[in-house]
Amino acid sequence: MDLFLETPQQQAERMLRQQQRLMEMQMQGAAAQPPAQNATPAVSPAGESAPEAYSVQQDSYAQELAFDKRRARRRRVGQRLRTLAMIVLIPLGLAAIFLVSYALTCILNGASPGEVLQHLSALGQRLGDVITTIRAGWES
Fold first, then answer.
1. For residues 55 and 34, is the Cβ–Cβ distance under 8 A?
2. Which among 1, 15, 45, 89 has most CB atoms closer than 10 A?
């Protein structure tokens, strides 16, 4: 029992009927319904395949896919930028908080503005010495 198998002749007849129905609907002014998604292309008696009908659904689906791809790309770029900003801004923020707290501690201990600048420059010089030591150890 081959109920679901079509011969090429039956397939061509079915596609011809579908095309006739579509043409009748177009003649009446109604919107043409797209052919079934799983339908195979019609084969003419000469063995040539008929051109596929234009599908409004397929076109709008392609537009939706393109929009979704653009939106996903923007979302990925935004996530990468946020991650990069966090990698850069968190250490900078911590360094700024440390410097402000160091300066406020000096001020609370009674240092004058000149002394605060001296302490900050000494801190910068010690930081430079630490970086030089690390670089020398890295190279050897």
1. yes
2. 15
Q: Within its chain, how far is the Cα of 9 from the centroid?
A: 47
pLDDT value of position 1 = 46
Q: What is the pTM assigned to this prediction? A: 0.47
CA distances from 107 to 37, 42, 79, 99 (A): 78, 89, 41, 12
DSSP letter, residue 43: B
**What is the three-class DSSP state of 39?**
coil
Assess whether pLDDT exceeds 60 at residue 118. Answer: yes
Place 6 in a pLDDT band, splitting at 50, 70 and 90. Answer: confident
**Distance, CA of 42 to CA of 18 (rounded, Å):** 10
Structure tokens at 82: 């946020």
> Residue 127 is which amino acid?
L
% helix / strand / coil in the chain, to the nearest 5? 70, 0, 25
7-to-21, 35, 45, 65 alpha-carbon distances in Å: 21, 19, 13, 36
